[in-house]
Write the structure tokens for this entry.
Amino acid sequence: MHSKEEISVKLEKVIDGDTVYLLDNNKKKYKVRLHAIDTPEKGQIYFLRAKEALFKLISNKSLTLEKINYDKYGRVVGIIYADNENVNYQMIQQGHAWCYRKYNRNPKFIEAEENAKSKKIGLWSLKEKNVAPWEWRKKSAK
């Protein structure tokens, strides 16, 4: 079993609700895709609110990046911890993200999504029909 690689990082920029640029202590830049979550794409309802929610969760906090792997775009896929709290989980719990079941292995993420849905918080409170980002990307690619 390989050990998880965790590094202390600082926030450089939030791209959207599930992608950020982080810097390590040597100023090395990482483009990071948050593991097991998916948030609205640019052009979708709730895009800006998800982006702002992520910014609030990680700005001015002590951040740790747990690298899981790399995606086909060369981004680090990982979990961000802000003051030791799992930000990926918090995004789902607060209703700002879907649990990306295709990549998720954590039952707590599914539970958090179901709970946010039932309480109608965050994007689950919208009157408009929510289109999952992966479905939206498929339609946009055509």
